[in-house]
Amino acid sequence: MNKSGYVEGGSLSGLRVLDLTRVWAGPLATRIFGDFGAQIIKISDPRTPVANTNGVNNKLNRNKLSLGLRLDKDSGKGIFRDLVAISDVVIENFRPRVMRNLSLAYDQLKAINHDIVMCSMPGFGMEGPYSEYPAYGTTAEAIAGVPSLIGYEPSVPMPTGIAYGDPISGLHAIGAVLASLRNRDIAGGGQFIDVALAAGPVITIGEFLVASSADSYEREVYGNKHTHQSPHGAYKAAGDDNWIAISVTNDQEWMSLRSVADDDRLSDPRFFEFEGRKQNEKLIDQVISEWVANREAVDLMNLLQNAGVPAGRVANSRQFLNDPHLAARDFFVWLDEQEFGPKQYEGQSIPGNYVDKSNWEPSHQMGQDSRYILEDILGYSDEQCHSLASEGSVAFNRELPTSDQRD
Amino acid sequence: MQDRHSQNEQTAENLPLRGIKVVEAAQGVAGPFCGRFLAALGAKVIKVERPPEGDWSRKIGPFLPGNVRSECSALYLYNNMGKESVLLDWETESGMSALETLVSSADILIEDWDRAYREEIGLTTDRFTSLNSELIEICTTPFGLTGPYSRWKSTPIVQLALGGYLYLTGNSSEEPLMLPGHQPDYLTGLNAHNAVQIALWERARSGRGQFLEMSMMENLGVLHQFTFEMETYSGVVRNRNGLQWNKVGPFASYGITTLPCDDGYVAFGASTEDQWERLCAMLGREDLLDDPEFDTRLKRSQKSDTLDSLITDWMKGKTRQEVFLEGSEKWFLPVAPVLNLNEVLRDPQFVQRNLFQPLSHPEAGEALYPTFPFAMSEIKPIVARAPLLGEHTSDVLGGLA
């Protein structure tokens, strides 16, 4: 991306996306568009300080332009409407009433641009009994039923610990927006898309819900136990909190595990088949636990995988960031975050023609691109910019130069 | 232009992927979940399954009641909605030739042939794209086709372990816990659909297809919340905290916690200062707002046990639904009941969104199927049952002769 925000290459170059999203799910979605070369105009209220010291804002907002804009002011709304007229997509994750109260609901935007695709990502959806209730990824996963399927024992559910509702919602938004853009190209006309955060995790436990609806599912296994695989679990390896995940999916893998673990107690012929292993799972787990207790998780993983047994070290953040496989595949990216220095981030997992990583832009300061957007994209004059700055509708990140300082 | 709102019946003819032909050789969840989106959006999806047993997910439950078990796997039935099934053994010469014929007139090929399998059957990555320059081929595998792990085996728990998720779920002193079912595969299927949509967008402009190599491990890597930034910006390794939230580092906070009430558990998601104030007001404990013991997020997080017991006491005599309604409506807090599966299926918000639709299958009978978490104003995705094994073999392969 060069200074003007124009992207050389990238499958989505030429698309313009107005990004009103905050927190995680929404910015994750628009980051994908930006990585693939769409022009993302991230619109933020200048009165809300950007919390960037923890890194999440910076990670999610790479490859985006920043416009500081107050939508509650008439002149701010006017700028937004001017942008809608020349954009392809508007995406937001406020509560349903916010855009309606701003007179910026889909029907009102469609009157400006018949082809606009608008994606709203509220907690529970735009309509329905819970539509104005707040929701986060942590509460969304709960009402979607996910914690009821996790846990050590039947009576106590376990949250994912990772706010699972958010990433699923973000990924759904991308597909729905792109399908709508394709529809626009073929048939003409825009689209309103309502992605409910709470409905996202429902979709990834579909098989359990289908069976449950026919009274055909009852949870049988707890902890890391598995209905079709044994042994199956995470076993504590050498060190403080290091674990190795092992799952034996068939009898051949069992024989391989037995040969590397080399303990007479595993030689029982009853264990050669799944049923026998499942019935004696406690004993087998005990033997494996003893075997791994003083070995390094990475060594165990290499040993088991080289013998053909599915196994993986339970990576923490530091171990993931230093993973040799990911490094060999050039998965990570380093971006220079000015005051914070160069920082390592995950790259883009969607393959294809994304913008070359050497051209990725770190997150921009709030309002860093306001002037470019107003003058170069919308054609506002210098005087208009000054007047918008003085009434506080637009934040320009730094003092606007006077006309004779420019050029 | 006709008023698209007036349409009340949606068929493939007015969906965005009308005219798009997909061949799906992938099995399990990741590739098939991608194909399910494409079918719902109007593409013709031909699923090729190897005889005699077909997709391995047919052997994995949970199962619906029915006499023919391989037709009753809810995992298969859910992930293969709206597709056609063709029996075809691409490991034989004639089968591969039939697959090549199918793919040469297709727009998209979804497969999951990993490096070890490709080497075993002698399949290069340009086998199909060289036959059809407009073909978009997506290959989803656990680790990708290059790199030191590319010949390794994987399962969901192994994937969650290496992807950095397993470490974050469960109690801090105990074995870390896996997410249910096939989460890495579902997340990969979602992103595979995104990859295909992006490639279709580009193809509409450039006319060229692509071979898209997707790694499940990398998909997990891009979906972490703040796990890596906690490390790279603050030098703190994120850990797991059971029913509670982070108690160290910049994301330490109180108010994200899961607690019991009279008929089950409730998940609270309060994390901002505003929400802390409203939580105290809800509990009738505004005095805590002036208490120096609780004046930062970090201090509060470290008093999670004390604060949890205040909420638990407050919830005594209340049901999950009562807490949910009072917390959401009166105090505007992010709070939700932890529902079990039967409750999810009956939840009034989900029901109003038509999130579940009944479908009848000739072998597995009636069941409710989750549709999509998005609703669209102009497009109604197709919701149709999964095919029987080889149900469309003669229709599809007969047409090739």
Keywords:
heterodimer; A: 407 residues; alpha/beta; formyl-coa transferase, domain 3; seven-stranded mixed sheet; three-stranded antiparallel sheet; 17 helices; B: 401 residues; Rossmann fold; 2 domains; six-stranded parallel sheet; 15 helices; 35% helix
Succession of helices and strands of chain B: EHEHEHEHEHHEHHEEHHHHEHHEEEH
Which descriptor suits the 3D outline of chain B? elongated
Using the coordinates above, name the CATH class of the largest domain in chain B. Answer: Alpha Beta
Q: Mean pLDDT of chain B, rounded to whole units?
A: 95
Mean pLDDT of chain A: 93
How does the major sheet of chain B shape up? 6 strands, parallel
Adjacency order of strands in the biggest sheet of chain B: 3-2-1-4-5-6
Q: How many discrete structural domains of chain B?
A: 2
**Helix proportion range of chain B:** 25-40%
Computed Rg of chain B: 25 Å
Provide the gyration radius of chain A in Å: 26 Å
- Total strand count of chain A, please? 12
Largest interface comes to:
A-B, 150 and 151 residues
Tell me what portion of residues of chain A adopts beta-strand conformation: 5-15%
**Oligomer kind:** heterodimer
The count of helical stretches of chain A stands at: 17
Strand content of chain B: 5-15%
Largest sheet of chain A: 7 strands, mixed
CATH class of the largest domain in chain A: Alpha Beta
Order of strands, widest sheet of chain A: 6-5-4-1-2-3-12
